[in-house]
Amino acid sequence: MSPVPGRPRRIPLRLRRTAVPWERQAPTWRDAKPVLIAEALKRAQSRPSGNWYVIGASRDLPPGRALGATVGSTEVVAWRDGEGKLRTGPGACPHLGAPLRDSPVHCGTLVCHWHGLSLDGGPFAGWEPYPAFDDGVLLWVRLDRMGGEPPSERPYVPVRPRARDAVEAVYRGIGRCEPEDVVANRLDPWHGAWFHPYSFVDLTVTGTPADDPADDDGFTVEVSFKVAGRLVVPVRARFSAPEPRTVVMHIIEGEGAGSVVETHATPLAPDGPGRPRTAVTEALVAASDRRGFAVARAAAPLLRPLMRASAGRLWRDDLAYAERRWELRDSGRFPG
Ligand code: FES
Ligand SMILES: [Fe+2]
């Protein structure tokens, strides 16, 4: 999948003439065929991941500190070496098992806080590093034993606007479900205006994989983002799943064309009663060719919390959807 070639057509902000009450909008359930979503999910799951998992945001790991993550049952520690390069490996100290996420980093070396064993990122005393990748927005670790697929040199990072033309923000949330429930939620674009009426109106799914067998990859959606009152921003967007745990929305036409919203689902350790948990890491990389966007870039530190807050509001609902889906699957009651 790729962004629309050439310069996107400008669609300005629009004032909706009439506000259709929520209950009078067109129902989407007839079009949102469970089999369409299930097949899109199956295709996503059949794509290679190269055993890469997102563990956090690049911005959240400054030099001099360690980051801990538990992917499935694998405890991982991450930090930056003296050159700022991402290093990852098992989260337990090879000596007596101290949690390395709590250890300090001195000049790029992780120093265990129990007895002072030092790790520079290379193999040492039975500690073997994991391959790691920092794509500039997100941090990835490759766990071959857990993934069980043929490994790839790098993760499948979606096409994004150039960093210097964009403002990026990363939202992170956790749900009691499996990664496939998060991906399935994203592959159901029909719920947008019904389930998130505070953000979306006038949503029409204009293309599904079933419409064009030659392009079996994406869902195309025309939708308006609510700005304030009746003021909306109409856009055309495309959802696709480049790998089993990622769904990407590219804005292909309208304000912010070229922007992407990437949703990454990473399995975590189960909770106390044994229910699965999944981290949602959503990277919003917003681009615009409007002149005012240069100002927006300068204001990025202020914009980021706003972008995260709006993603957080959507994900409160979407995680409820994903958790519900898992509960129904777990109890054999899923209608799909
Ligand atoms: S547990 Fe880390 S040095 Fe002893
Ligand atoms: Fe949603």
Largest sheet: 8 strands, antiparallel
CATH names the topology of the largest domain as: Alpha-D-Glucose-1,6-Bisphosphate, Chain A, domain 4
From the spread of the alpha carbons, the general shape counts as: globular
Kindly state the percentage of residues in helix: 10-25%
The top-level CATH class of the largest domain is Alpha Beta
Q: Which quaternary structure do these chains form?
A: single chain
What's the domain count? 2
Tell me the radius of gyration.
Answer: 21 Å
Give the DSSP E fraction (strand runs of 2 or more residues). 25-35%
Q: What would CATH call the homologous superfamily of the largest domain?
A: START domain
Bound molecule kinds, no repeats: FE2/S2 (inorganic) cluster, fe (ii) ion
Number of DSSP helical runs: 6
Mean pLDDT: 90
Distance between the termini: 26 Å
Task: Write a brief structural summary.
This protein folds into two domains: 14-47 and 158-331, START domain (Alpha-D-Glucose-1,6-Bisphosphate, Chain A, domain 4), CATH 3.30.530.20; 52-147, Rieske [2Fe-2S] iron-sulphur domain (Rieske Iron-sulfur Protein, 3-layer Sandwich), CATH 2.102.10. The protein is 20% helix and 33% strand. It is built from six helices and 17 strands.
Descriptive account of the structure:
By secondary structure, the protein is α+β, with helices and mostly antiparallel strands. The chain has 2 domains: 14-47 and 158-331, Alpha-D-Glucose-1,6-Bisphosphate, Chain A, domain 4, CATH 3.30.530.20; 52-147, Rieske [2Fe-2S] iron-sulphur domain (Rieske Iron-sulfur Protein), CATH 2.102.10.10. Helices cover 20% and strands 33% of the residues. The protein has 6 helices and 17 strands. Strands 1, 11, 12, 13, 14, 15, 16 and 17 form an 8-stranded antiparallel sheet that branches. A 3-stranded antiparallel sheet has the order 2-10-9, with no helix packed on it. The protein has a 3-stranded antiparallel sheet with strand order 3-4-5, with no helix packed on it. Helix 3 (179-186) crosses helix 6 (300-330). The protein binds FE2/S2 (inorganic) cluster (FES) and fe (ii) ion. FE2/S2 (inorganic) cluster is lined by residues 93, 95-96, 98, 112, 114-117.
